[in-house]
Design goal:
0% strand
Length: 72
């Protein structure tokens, strides 16, 4: 069980809380990714999701959640 709770506990969350946050981030990134793929094919379609992704990154960085650096 420690395998599932060690990281969430290190960032002050329960397993369920951490699962929900991670799922929400994943869903938002998936939507933004799909929107950018559509933009790549149809350049005249410029969705506002880039701003949402930047806001999400700022939010996660401001929480200082103890997550690993993306460059590691």
């Amino acid at each position: 069980m420690k395998l599932f709770t060690e990281h969430p506990n290190s960032v002050g969350e329960t397993y369920l809380q951490h699962c929900l946050v991670a799922a929400k981030v994943s869903l938002k990134l998936s939507v933004a990714s799909l929107a950018q793929l559509v933009h790549a094919i149809f350049p005249f379609f410029n969705p506002p999701y880039g701003t949402d992704v930047c806001s999400m990154i700022e939010y996660l960085e401001s929480k200082k959640r103890g997550a690993r650096n993306c460059n590691e």
